[in-house]
Specification:
- This protein has about 425 residues and is an alpha+beta fold.
- It has three domains: about 160 residues, no CATH class; about 80 residues, no CATH class; about 100 residues, Roll (Chitinase A, domain 3), CATH 3.10.50.
- The strands form three sheets. A four-stranded antiparallel sheet has the order 7-6-9-8. Strands 2-1-3 form a three-stranded mixed sheet.
- The radius of gyration is 37 Å and the shape is elongated.
Length: about 425
Protein backbone atom coordinates (compact mmCIF):
# COMPACT_ATOMS: atom_id res chain seq x y z
CA UNK A 1 0.00 0.00 0.00
CA UNK A 2 1.55 3.26 -1.04
CA UNK A 3 0.43 6.70 -2.15
CA UNK A 4 1.61 8.69 -5.12
CA UNK A 5 2.19 12.42 -5.41
CA UNK A 6 0.87 13.58 -8.78
CA UNK A 7 1.88 16.89 -10.37
CA UNK A 8 -1.07 18.48 -12.21
CA UNK A 9 -1.08 20.79 -15.20
CA UNK A 10 -2.25 24.39 -14.69
CA UNK A 11 -5.59 23.55 -16.35
CA UNK A 12 -6.21 20.71 -13.91
CA UNK A 13 -5.21 22.95 -11.02
CA UNK A 14 -7.78 25.53 -12.07
CA UNK A 15 -10.45 22.85 -12.38
CA UNK A 16 -9.77 21.54 -8.88
CA UNK A 17 -9.46 24.97 -7.33
CA UNK A 18 -13.02 25.76 -8.41
CA UNK A 19 -14.59 29.13 -9.02
CA UNK A 20 -15.10 30.26 -5.45
CA UNK A 21 -13.15 33.47 -5.93
CA UNK A 22 -14.97 34.27 -9.19
CA UNK A 23 -18.39 33.87 -7.62
CA UNK A 24 -17.55 36.12 -4.71
CA UNK A 25 -17.90 33.37 -2.13
CA UNK A 26 -15.82 33.95 1.04
CA UNK A 27 -12.58 31.96 1.20
CA UNK A 28 -11.99 29.52 4.04
CA UNK A 29 -8.64 28.17 5.28
CA UNK A 30 -8.59 24.41 5.68
CA UNK A 31 -6.12 21.95 7.17
CA UNK A 32 -5.54 18.18 7.20
CA UNK A 33 -7.83 17.92 10.23
CA UNK A 34 -10.75 18.99 8.02
CA UNK A 35 -10.06 16.04 5.74
CA UNK A 36 -10.04 13.60 8.65
CA UNK A 37 -13.56 14.71 9.61
CA UNK A 38 -14.78 16.70 6.59
CA UNK A 39 -17.80 18.90 6.54
CA UNK A 40 -20.43 18.55 3.85
CA UNK A 41 -19.22 21.60 1.94
CA UNK A 42 -15.77 20.06 1.51
CA UNK A 43 -17.07 16.90 -0.15
CA UNK A 44 -16.63 18.19 -3.67
CA UNK A 45 -16.72 15.61 -6.41
CA UNK A 46 -13.40 14.66 -8.03
CA UNK A 47 -13.94 15.16 -11.79
CA UNK A 48 -11.55 12.28 -12.56
CA UNK A 49 -13.35 9.43 -10.80
CA UNK A 50 -16.67 10.63 -9.41
CA UNK A 51 -15.39 10.11 -5.83
CA UNK A 52 -15.06 12.95 -3.35
CA UNK A 53 -11.68 14.68 -3.24
CA UNK A 54 -11.55 14.10 0.52
CA UNK A 55 -11.83 10.34 0.04
CA UNK A 56 -9.00 10.49 -2.51
CA UNK A 57 -6.49 11.55 0.19
CA UNK A 58 -4.47 8.79 1.90
CA UNK A 59 -4.09 10.16 5.44
CA UNK A 60 -1.91 8.31 7.94
CA UNK A 61 -3.61 7.78 11.27
CA UNK A 62 -0.49 9.03 13.06
CA UNK A 63 -0.48 12.25 11.04
CA UNK A 64 -4.18 13.15 11.02
CA UNK A 65 -5.57 11.39 14.04
CA UNK A 66 -8.16 9.67 11.87
CA UNK A 67 -8.39 6.27 10.23
CA UNK A 68 -6.83 5.54 6.84
CA UNK A 69 -9.16 5.26 3.86
CA UNK A 70 -9.86 1.68 2.86
CA UNK A 71 -8.66 2.28 -0.69
CA UNK A 72 -5.39 4.03 0.28
CA UNK A 73 -3.38 2.00 -2.23
CA UNK A 74 -4.96 3.83 -5.17
CA UNK A 75 -5.43 7.26 -3.57
CA UNK A 76 -3.58 10.31 -4.91
CA UNK A 77 -2.33 13.38 -3.09
CA UNK A 78 -3.02 16.33 -5.37
CA UNK A 79 -0.15 18.81 -5.12
CA UNK A 80 -0.47 22.18 -6.80
CA UNK A 81 2.76 23.86 -5.74
CA UNK A 82 2.48 27.62 -5.27
CA UNK A 83 -1.11 27.61 -6.54
CA UNK A 84 -2.39 25.15 -3.95
CA UNK A 85 -5.66 25.69 -2.16
CA UNK A 86 -5.49 28.17 0.75
CA UNK A 87 -4.34 26.65 4.02
CA UNK A 88 -2.83 23.48 2.49
CA UNK A 89 0.98 23.46 2.84
CA UNK A 90 3.05 21.59 0.27
CA UNK A 91 6.79 21.35 0.88
CA UNK A 92 8.55 22.71 -2.27
CA UNK A 93 11.83 21.09 -1.12
CA UNK A 94 10.59 17.53 -1.50
CA UNK A 95 13.85 15.69 -2.48
CA UNK A 96 13.57 14.02 -5.86
CA UNK A 97 16.10 12.88 -8.45
CA UNK A 98 14.83 15.52 -10.88
CA UNK A 99 11.83 17.92 -11.02
CA UNK A 100 8.54 16.19 -11.68
CA UNK A 101 6.72 17.03 -14.87
CA UNK A 102 2.96 17.42 -15.36
CA UNK A 103 1.15 14.12 -14.91
CA UNK A 104 4.14 12.28 -13.33
CA UNK A 105 3.78 10.37 -10.07
CA UNK A 106 6.06 10.12 -7.04
CA UNK A 107 5.25 7.31 -4.56
CA UNK A 108 5.35 8.71 -1.04
CA UNK A 109 4.91 7.38 2.50
CA UNK A 110 3.16 4.01 2.43
CA UNK A 111 2.83 1.04 4.74
CA UNK A 112 4.69 -1.84 3.11
CA UNK A 113 4.05 -4.42 5.82
CA UNK A 114 4.82 -5.35 9.40
CA UNK A 115 7.76 -7.02 11.09
CA UNK A 116 6.91 -8.38 14.53
CA UNK A 117 4.04 -5.92 14.75
CA UNK A 118 6.19 -2.93 13.84
CA UNK A 119 5.10 -1.15 10.63
CA UNK A 120 7.61 -0.78 7.81
CA UNK A 121 7.11 2.41 5.80
CA UNK A 122 8.58 3.10 2.38
CA UNK A 123 10.02 6.54 3.21
CA UNK A 124 11.67 5.25 6.37
CA UNK A 125 13.20 2.38 4.37
CA UNK A 126 14.56 4.44 1.45
CA UNK A 127 15.72 7.61 3.25
CA UNK A 128 19.17 6.28 4.37
CA UNK A 129 20.06 5.01 0.88
CA UNK A 130 18.28 7.52 -1.33
CA UNK A 131 21.43 9.50 -2.25
CA UNK A 132 23.26 6.27 -3.08
CA UNK A 133 20.38 5.10 -5.27
CA UNK A 134 20.18 8.37 -7.19
CA UNK A 135 23.95 8.36 -7.82
CA UNK A 136 23.95 4.72 -8.99
CA UNK A 137 20.98 5.19 -11.29
CA UNK A 138 22.36 8.40 -12.84
CA UNK A 139 25.68 6.76 -13.76
CA UNK A 140 24.27 3.75 -15.66
CA UNK A 141 21.92 2.87 -18.49
CA UNK A 142 18.37 1.94 -17.59
CA UNK A 143 18.79 -1.85 -17.79
CA UNK A 144 21.89 -1.87 -15.59
CA UNK A 145 20.39 0.68 -13.19
CA UNK A 146 17.25 -1.48 -12.85
CA UNK A 147 19.32 -4.56 -11.98
CA UNK A 148 21.49 -2.73 -9.43
CA UNK A 149 18.49 -0.97 -7.86
CA UNK A 150 16.63 -4.24 -7.33
CA UNK A 151 19.69 -5.91 -5.79
CA UNK A 152 20.30 -2.94 -3.48
CA UNK A 153 16.70 -3.01 -2.24
CA UNK A 154 16.85 -6.78 -1.68
CA UNK A 155 20.06 -6.53 0.37
CA UNK A 156 18.77 -3.68 2.52
CA UNK A 157 15.44 -5.41 3.08
CA UNK A 158 17.21 -8.61 4.18
CA UNK A 159 19.32 -6.62 6.66
CA UNK A 160 16.25 -4.81 7.95
CA UNK A 161 14.39 -8.07 8.50
CA UNK A 162 17.34 -9.67 10.26
CA UNK A 163 17.84 -6.65 12.53
CA UNK A 164 14.20 -6.49 13.51
CA UNK A 165 14.01 -10.21 14.20
CA UNK A 166 17.21 -10.34 16.25
CA UNK A 167 16.32 -7.29 18.36
CA UNK A 168 12.79 -8.55 18.99
CA UNK A 169 14.15 -11.96 20.01
CA UNK A 170 16.75 -10.36 22.28
CA UNK A 171 14.09 -8.23 23.98
CA UNK A 172 11.90 -11.25 24.58
CA UNK A 173 14.76 -13.06 26.33
CA UNK A 174 15.35 -10.35 28.95
CA UNK A 175 14.26 -11.12 32.50
CA UNK A 176 12.77 -8.28 34.62
CA UNK A 177 16.08 -7.93 36.42
CA UNK A 178 17.98 -7.70 33.13
CA UNK A 179 15.56 -5.09 31.84
CA UNK A 180 16.16 -2.96 34.94
CA UNK A 181 19.92 -3.39 34.55
CA UNK A 182 19.76 -2.39 30.89
CA UNK A 183 17.70 0.68 31.72
CA UNK A 184 20.18 1.73 34.41
CA UNK A 185 23.11 1.24 32.04
CA UNK A 186 21.42 3.30 29.32
CA UNK A 187 20.72 6.13 31.76
CA UNK A 188 24.35 6.14 32.90
CA UNK A 189 25.60 5.95 29.31
CA UNK A 190 23.37 8.86 28.29
CA UNK A 191 24.77 11.00 31.10
CA UNK A 192 28.33 10.14 30.03
CA UNK A 193 27.51 10.95 26.40
CA UNK A 194 26.10 14.35 27.32
CA UNK A 195 29.13 15.09 29.50
CA UNK A 196 31.56 14.12 26.73
CA UNK A 197 29.72 16.12 24.05
CA UNK A 198 29.49 19.58 25.58
CA UNK A 199 27.90 19.05 28.98
CA UNK A 200 24.32 19.84 27.96
CA UNK A 201 21.62 17.99 26.09
CA UNK A 202 21.47 20.65 23.37
CA UNK A 203 25.23 20.47 22.80
CA UNK A 204 25.12 16.66 22.66
CA UNK A 205 22.24 16.79 20.15
CA UNK A 206 24.16 19.25 17.95
CA UNK A 207 27.31 17.07 18.09
CA UNK A 208 25.45 13.88 17.13
CA UNK A 209 23.52 15.57 14.34
CA UNK A 210 26.79 16.99 12.98
CA UNK A 211 28.38 13.53 12.89
CA UNK A 212 25.57 11.43 11.52
CA UNK A 213 22.27 13.34 11.45
CA UNK A 214 21.17 11.40 14.53
CA UNK A 215 19.27 12.65 17.56
CA UNK A 216 20.25 11.71 21.11
CA UNK A 217 17.26 9.38 21.38
CA UNK A 218 18.21 7.63 18.13
CA UNK A 219 21.80 7.31 19.32
CA UNK A 220 20.71 5.75 22.61
CA UNK A 221 18.36 3.38 20.76
CA UNK A 222 21.24 2.30 18.53
CA UNK A 223 23.45 1.61 21.56
CA UNK A 224 20.65 -0.33 23.23
CA UNK A 225 20.14 -2.47 20.12
CA UNK A 226 23.87 -3.23 19.91
CA UNK A 227 23.93 -4.38 23.52
CA UNK A 228 20.90 -6.61 22.96
CA UNK A 229 22.40 -8.17 19.83
CA UNK A 230 25.71 -8.89 21.56
CA UNK A 231 23.86 -10.46 24.46
CA UNK A 232 21.85 -12.65 22.11
CA UNK A 233 25.04 -13.69 20.30
CA UNK A 234 26.63 -14.72 23.59
CA UNK A 235 23.57 -16.68 24.69
CA UNK A 236 22.41 -18.34 21.48
CA UNK A 237 25.25 -18.46 18.93
CA UNK A 238 28.65 -18.38 20.63
CA UNK A 239 28.06 -21.58 22.68
CA UNK A 240 27.47 -23.47 19.43
CA UNK A 241 30.66 -22.22 17.76
CA UNK A 242 33.15 -24.91 18.82
CA UNK A 243 36.45 -25.67 17.08
CA UNK A 244 38.45 -28.70 18.26
CA UNK A 245 42.07 -29.67 17.65
CA UNK A 246 40.86 -32.34 15.25
CA UNK A 247 39.08 -29.66 13.21
CA UNK A 248 42.31 -27.66 12.95
CA UNK A 249 44.28 -30.77 11.94
CA UNK A 250 41.78 -31.69 9.22
CA UNK A 251 41.78 -28.14 7.85
CA UNK A 252 45.59 -28.13 7.70
CA UNK A 253 45.64 -31.44 5.84
CA UNK A 254 42.99 -30.23 3.42
CA UNK A 255 45.09 -27.14 2.64
CA UNK A 256 48.48 -28.88 2.86
CA UNK A 257 49.66 -27.55 -0.51
CA UNK A 258 48.91 -23.99 0.63
CA UNK A 259 51.20 -24.31 3.67
CA UNK A 260 53.80 -26.44 1.88
CA UNK A 261 54.16 -24.92 -1.59
CA UNK A 262 56.39 -26.71 -4.11
CA UNK A 263 59.51 -24.89 -5.42
CA UNK A 264 59.01 -22.82 -8.54
CA UNK A 265 61.43 -23.00 -11.48
CA UNK A 266 61.60 -20.18 -14.04
CA UNK A 267 63.08 -21.10 -17.43
CA UNK A 268 64.49 -18.71 -20.01
CA UNK A 269 64.94 -19.25 -23.74
CA UNK A 270 66.72 -17.52 -26.63
CA UNK A 271 65.32 -18.71 -29.96
CA UNK A 272 66.77 -17.48 -33.26
CA UNK A 273 65.89 -18.21 -36.89
CA UNK A 274 68.58 -19.94 -38.94
CA UNK A 275 67.53 -18.08 -42.10
CA UNK A 276 67.18 -14.56 -40.67
CA UNK A 277 69.36 -14.39 -37.55
CA UNK A 278 72.60 -15.98 -38.75
CA UNK A 279 74.70 -13.10 -37.44
CA UNK A 280 72.92 -13.10 -34.07
CA UNK A 281 73.44 -16.86 -33.77
CA UNK A 282 77.15 -16.37 -34.27
CA UNK A 283 77.13 -13.58 -31.71
CA UNK A 284 75.51 -15.88 -29.13
CA UNK A 285 78.10 -18.60 -29.78
CA UNK A 286 80.88 -16.02 -29.37
CA UNK A 287 79.45 -14.73 -26.08
CA UNK A 288 79.08 -18.26 -24.72
CA UNK A 289 82.73 -18.90 -25.57
CA UNK A 290 83.59 -15.72 -23.65
CA UNK A 291 81.80 -17.09 -20.58
CA UNK A 292 78.83 -14.70 -20.63
CA UNK A 293 75.70 -15.83 -18.76
CA UNK A 294 72.14 -16.00 -20.06
CA UNK A 295 70.83 -12.67 -18.65
CA UNK A 296 73.69 -10.65 -20.16
CA UNK A 297 73.37 -12.29 -23.59
CA UNK A 298 69.57 -11.89 -23.61
CA UNK A 299 70.00 -8.24 -22.63
CA UNK A 300 72.52 -7.63 -25.43
CA UNK A 301 70.16 -9.18 -27.98
CA UNK A 302 67.18 -7.23 -26.63
CA UNK A 303 65.09 -10.33 -25.95
CA UNK A 304 61.73 -9.44 -24.42
CA UNK A 305 61.28 -9.99 -20.65
CA UNK A 306 64.96 -10.82 -20.27
CA UNK A 307 64.38 -14.08 -22.13
CA UNK A 308 61.74 -15.43 -19.67
CA UNK A 309 59.87 -18.35 -21.24
CA UNK A 310 57.94 -20.54 -18.78
CA UNK A 311 57.39 -21.10 -15.05
CA UNK A 312 56.58 -24.46 -13.44
CA UNK A 313 56.01 -25.90 -10.01
CA UNK A 314 58.92 -28.26 -9.40
CA UNK A 315 57.68 -31.77 -8.49
CA UNK A 316 59.46 -34.01 -5.95
CA UNK A 317 61.44 -35.76 -8.73
CA UNK A 318 62.79 -32.39 -9.91
CA UNK A 319 63.26 -31.41 -13.55
CA UNK A 320 62.62 -34.97 -14.69
CA UNK A 321 59.01 -34.63 -13.55
CA UNK A 322 58.24 -31.51 -15.61
CA UNK A 323 55.79 -31.70 -18.50
CA UNK A 324 58.44 -30.83 -21.08
CA UNK A 325 60.10 -32.65 -23.96
CA UNK A 326 63.03 -34.92 -23.18
CA UNK A 327 65.38 -32.69 -25.20
CA UNK A 328 64.57 -29.67 -23.02
CA UNK A 329 64.74 -31.61 -19.75
CA UNK A 330 68.14 -33.06 -20.68
CA UNK A 331 69.59 -29.60 -21.27
CA UNK A 332 68.32 -27.90 -18.09
CA UNK A 333 68.64 -30.81 -15.65
CA UNK A 334 71.52 -29.94 -13.32
CA UNK A 335 72.13 -26.61 -15.08
CA UNK A 336 73.33 -23.79 -12.80
CA UNK A 337 71.08 -20.75 -12.45
CA UNK A 338 71.87 -18.26 -15.23
CA UNK A 339 74.09 -20.65 -17.23
CA UNK A 340 73.55 -21.23 -20.94
CA UNK A 341 72.50 -24.72 -22.03
CA UNK A 342 73.73 -26.65 -25.02
CA UNK A 343 71.85 -25.45 -28.14
CA UNK A 344 68.83 -27.25 -29.52
CA UNK A 345 69.37 -27.12 -33.27
CA UNK A 346 66.40 -27.62 -35.57
CA UNK A 347 65.89 -27.08 -39.30
CA UNK A 348 64.59 -23.49 -38.87
CA UNK A 349 65.62 -22.45 -35.35
CA UNK A 350 68.44 -22.63 -32.84
CA UNK A 351 67.48 -22.35 -29.15
CA UNK A 352 69.39 -21.96 -25.89
CA UNK A 353 67.79 -22.53 -22.48
CA UNK A 354 68.63 -21.40 -18.98
CA UNK A 355 67.31 -21.78 -15.44
CA UNK A 356 66.56 -18.21 -14.42
CA UNK A 357 65.64 -19.03 -10.81
CA UNK A 358 64.41 -21.73 -8.46
CA UNK A 359 62.27 -20.25 -5.69
CA UNK A 360 61.79 -22.41 -2.64
CA UNK A 361 58.32 -21.84 -1.22
CA UNK A 362 58.10 -21.11 2.51
CA UNK A 363 56.81 -24.19 4.30
CA UNK A 364 54.73 -23.72 7.42
CA UNK A 365 54.30 -26.54 9.91
CA UNK A 366 51.07 -27.37 11.68
CA UNK A 367 52.94 -26.85 14.93
CA UNK A 368 53.61 -23.23 14.03
CA UNK A 369 51.54 -21.26 16.57
CA UNK A 370 50.53 -18.64 14.00
CA UNK A 371 49.28 -21.37 11.66
CA UNK A 372 47.20 -22.97 14.41
CA UNK A 373 45.68 -19.69 15.59
CA UNK A 374 44.98 -18.57 12.03
CA UNK A 375 43.20 -21.81 11.15
CA UNK A 376 41.22 -21.69 14.39
CA UNK A 377 40.07 -18.12 13.74
CA UNK A 378 39.02 -18.98 10.19
CA UNK A 379 37.07 -22.03 11.32
CA UNK A 380 35.37 -20.10 14.12
CA UNK A 381 34.41 -17.27 11.78
CA UNK A 382 33.03 -19.74 9.25
CA UNK A 383 31.00 -21.62 11.85
CA UNK A 384 29.79 -18.44 13.49
CA UNK A 385 28.46 -17.28 10.13
CA UNK A 386 26.75 -20.65 9.62
CA UNK A 387 25.20 -20.66 13.10
CA UNK A 388 24.04 -17.06 12.76
CA UNK A 389 22.41 -17.82 9.41
CA UNK A 390 20.76 -20.94 10.79
CA UNK A 391 19.46 -19.01 13.80
CA UNK A 392 18.10 -16.18 11.66
CA UNK A 393 16.26 -18.69 9.47
CA UNK A 394 14.64 -20.15 12.56
CA UNK A 395 13.59 -16.64 13.69
CA UNK A 396 12.05 -15.91 10.31
CA UNK A 397 9.74 -18.91 10.63
CA UNK A 398 8.88 -18.16 14.27
CA UNK A 399 8.40 -14.39 14.29
CA UNK A 400 7.45 -13.11 10.87
CA UNK A 401 3.70 -12.80 10.47
CA UNK A 402 3.69 -11.07 7.08
CA UNK A 403 4.76 -12.33 3.68
CA UNK A 404 8.40 -11.26 3.27
CA UNK A 405 8.32 -11.91 -0.46
CA UNK A 406 5.32 -9.63 -0.94
CA UNK A 407 6.94 -6.87 1.14
CA UNK A 408 10.18 -7.10 -0.83
CA UNK A 409 8.28 -6.99 -4.12
CA UNK A 410 6.35 -3.91 -2.96
CA UNK A 411 9.56 -2.10 -2.00
CA UNK A 412 11.11 -2.92 -5.38
CA UNK A 413 7.96 -1.66 -7.11
CA UNK A 414 8.13 1.64 -5.21
CA UNK A 415 11.88 1.99 -5.86
CA UNK A 416 11.49 1.45 -9.61
CA UNK A 417 8.55 3.84 -9.69
CA UNK A 418 10.49 6.52 -7.83
CA UNK A 419 14.02 6.33 -9.16
CA UNK A 420 13.71 4.93 -12.69
CA UNK A 421 11.36 7.58 -14.07
Amino acid sequence: MFTTLRVLTPIAIAALAGCASDSGTARRDISLRDFAQPSAELRTQDPRSGESIVDAFALDAGASGGAKPADAASADVLATGAQTAPGVDVDPKQPVARPLGPGESWPIEGLVGQLNGRPLFADEFFEPIEDEIIALVAARDRAEADRILRELVRRRFARTVDNELVIAEAESQLSPEQQEGLFAWLRSFQEETIAERGGSRAAAEASLEGEGAMSLEEFMQEQRDEVLVRQLMRDRITPRVIVSWRDVLQEYERRFAEFNPVPTIRIGRIRLSTSVDAERIELVRKRIAEGKDFPSIAGELGVADGGFWEQFGLPPEGVKGLQLSDAIKQRIDGLAVGAMSEPIEQREFVSWLSVLSIEQGTKRSLYDMDVQLGLERELMSRREFFERDRYLNSLRTRWTSDDLGRMEAKLIEIAVSRYLR
